[in-house]
Amino acid sequence: MLRMRLSARSDYALRAAIELAAADPGHVTADQLARTQGMPSKFLEAILTQLRRAGLVRSQRGPDGGFWLARPASDISLADIIRAIDGPLLGVRGERPENIGYTGAAEPLQTVWIALRANERAILEEVTLSHIVTAKLPPGVQQLADDPKAWTSQWVN
Known about the structure:
The protein is mainly alpha-helical. Helix content is 48%, strand content 5%. A two-stranded antiparallel ribbon has the order 1-2.
């Protein structure tokens, strides 16, 4: 079954980027980020390197070194970070939904996967690091989260 699954790498990347967005102006070391969020330091360093290569963070070596956001927090969406770490937001058996074709009665399933990706994008591309740091989510996102059904699992075994 297809479902949103966030990797540990993306989770750590999001948390580190949020910490950088919340930090006072200046550099934050990977060790500081790892301690603050309870993450393995070496694992986080590799993630920060990916974020740097994607142009989302900058770094400086040396005694005054560390990491900082490459753009304002209001210009970096959660989707930007997830894509930098894990690639496309939604896939079906490792393929983009527009590249999956179905025949017969299952043909409309591709449209469902496209709609699911569009819905996921609508949230993850709208929410920025700034929204998280200020705890002021966009109204549409907050409205979805305010629905009590959003907080319960619907999985049936």
